[in-house]
Amino acid sequence: MSVLETFYSSKGPLGVWTPVVVVLLNALGVALGLGIVQLFKFLLKPQYDLAKLPQPPVGDWVLGHVKHLLRKDYHRVILGWAKQYGRIFKLRILNEWTVVITDPAAAAQVLASVPGRTHNYKHIDEVLGGPGKISMFGTPDEVHWRNARKTTAPAFSMANVRRYYGGVLSAAGELLSSLDAEQGALGAVDVEPLLQRLMLRATLEGLFEVPDATALPGFDDLASNILLLMAEANAQVTDPVRAFFYSTPIAPLVSKHVARCRAALKHVVVFHGKTAARILARPEPSPDNTLLWACLHRLRHPHTGRKLTAGQLHPEVGMYTTAGFDTTASTVGWCMYAASLWPEQQEAVAAELRAAGVFGPGAVVEVDEAEGQAGAKRPSLRLDAKHCPGPEELAKLPRLNAFINEVMRVFPPTAISAERLTPDYPITVMGMTFPPKTVLWCITYGIHMSDANWEEAAKFRPERWLEDSRCAFAKGPGAGGAAAAPAVGGTEGPAAAIGGAAEEEAPSTAPRRFLPFGQGPKNCVGQNFGITVVRAVVALLLSRYAVSLHPDMDLSPEGDTLGAGGGGDSAQGGSDGCRHSAEDTARLTHVAVITKLKKLRLVLQRRDRAAAAAGGGVMVGS
Ligand code: HEM
To answer: Which residues form a coiled coil (predicted)?
Structure first.
């Protein structure tokens, strides 16, 4: 018997398993060989101006810089490299070059002129919606994107945002009732799930006009299932091996986590599918109806022009449900975290709200008595729209907006946005020519936190927004030449120039150094609605409660002020006596597509009660 026959028969050293193992080893050898050939092809292909860019030392010859990014706070690694290697440097992720850009003028040019998003966006879509379920967010097909963006952008006019805002106020009554009850029963509140619920309800009831969303089967698990999938999608983006394993049929059999993800996906797909079917079952909306559901109803197939089926509409519905809720809830969460770390800032905002009568007497109404937790009676609350501020009124409060802007600068929920992919031919941007299929990563966190772009970038200082009406725009040489291209569909309204007094100004030609909603044609289409909700909920919470962190959010054993006396690299630490250093915040943070706090536990003290107890004249926390 020849050697070959021995190894391909059950007479080999591993008995009946011999042929199986040999075939697997062969397949592995072929895959490895192909991989090495690909890597050589990649390393030998022309680099154009890429060759001139600096790069950090490669962690691994095959994986490139992958290993450095396998951390929950990889946005901070990038910021560290930007400090060391400059505002434009390169990285290698397997056989793909990524150019990291933290220079505002360069970012403005890239985001204006390189339309293609990277395959990471498509990957996130598919982990969240299933294979082939690609929305306008993840599609590599520009015709698909343009068609969906143009059709749905009118949904975010200020006239529509005012209509959705009513739904936000209704959902906010439930939020306050839950906060009061949880605080009363447990002495602390786990606040983000409640914020996510508020936002999902506002999206479904306001944008899609689905009545009584909380009664829908599966509503209660929707947020946690989407978040589980988002965290998984993000982990796969930085770990190609994990992505490969996840896609294999054996993965759910050997990993409980993957099995949970598959179950979550099933649930989420059914939920979005039903929402899409509900929208399409409605009669044709009148042409003047531009609410989101009506825009989605009139969306047609980008290539055939045919009416969409529920299955085809599903990715856009899923994407709109997902894009709005976690971004907004996390932003409010970060605002509460910052308000707790800097109580004097919190009090300045609260004083402004009080002076302006925002969410003042009559805004929150007790409707009836319901049985609360632990047998305690608690009032059920609703907001009376007549006594609540409108979106425009909120946009004009300087302190509130300076505070929110500074939170979105230092703790941007889309810290790792925005990546673009050059086309399949060499292109020249920023005076440099890049090879086809190069990733250009205009990382928000790097732009927002770089000392090259901001004075005392690491310091949380809302006053910078009050002192400089053009604070959102880059300063210095080169800042005048590269304005971002306008968004498709436009974004008129308060978010178009988010920046306190800057809202009154004519659009600047200087590039933006503050881009919480991105910029260029693919900026955030929902930003008018997002920022309106953030302003309303932050104002509502800070006018009603003095918020502080629960002691279990302190990281040192004594729970003392780790940041005190710190400085340098610390976003918070140092002279202002903030109780967390940047390292502490990093340990409480994770990136799950959205950058968020792992768990936000707050202690809420009712301002009206504390003021009454103190004789009506003393400010809580002052
Ligand atoms: C505070 C809240 C929000 C933040 C910080 C935020 C941030 C962003 C950013 C940075 C992008 C651009 C990504 C890129 O450049 O690749 C984006 C895109 C997008 N956002 Fe938002 N967003 C928020 C709220 C919302 C809301 C409320 C909606 C809708 C209900 C929404 C819908 C979208 C959509 C559909 C896109 C993709 C746009 C396109 O592909 O043309 N966002 N968002």
So the answer is: none
The C-alpha atoms of residue 431 and residue 433 are separated, in whole angstroms, by 7
Neighbours of 266 (CB within 10 A): 12
Decide if 36 is inside a domain. Answer: yes
Ligand 1 atom closest to residue 523's alpha carbon, by position in its atom list? 12
* Cα atoms in the 13 Å half-sphere on the side-chain side of 212: 3
Ligand 1: residue of 208, 320, 527 to mutate (most ligand atoms within 8 A of CB) is 527
Q: Kindly report the protein residue whose alpha carbon is nearest to atom 3 of ligand 1.
A: 327
Q: Which residues line ligand 1 (CB under 6 A)?
A: 117, 136-137, 149, 320, 323-324, 327-328, 331, 413-414, 417-418, 516-518, 522-526, 529-530, 534
443-474 pLDDT, tens digit each: 999 999 999 999 999 999 999 999 999 999 99
For 553-586, how does the pLDDT look when each residue is reduced to its tens digit (9 = 90+)? 887 554 444 443 333 344 554 446 677 888 888 8
Structural domain harbouring 11:
3-44
In this structure, is residue 293 part of a structural domain? no
**Residue 11 counted as domain residue:** yes
Place of tokens 């309303």: 536
Global confidence as pTM: 0.88
Compute the distance between CA of residue 591 and CA of residue 165 in angstroms, rounded to an integer.
Answer: 29
Mean pLDDT, range 25-53, rounded to an integer: 78
Q: How far is CA 152 from CA 146, 293, 395, 517, in A?
A: 10, 9, 24, 17
Give a yes or no: residue 25 inside a domain: yes
Task: Give Cβ neighbours of residue 204 (< 8 Å, ≥ 6 apart).
Answer: 210, 213, 216, 219, 275, 321
The number of folded domains in the chain is 1
Angle at 588 between CA 582 and CA 593, to 5 degrees: 100
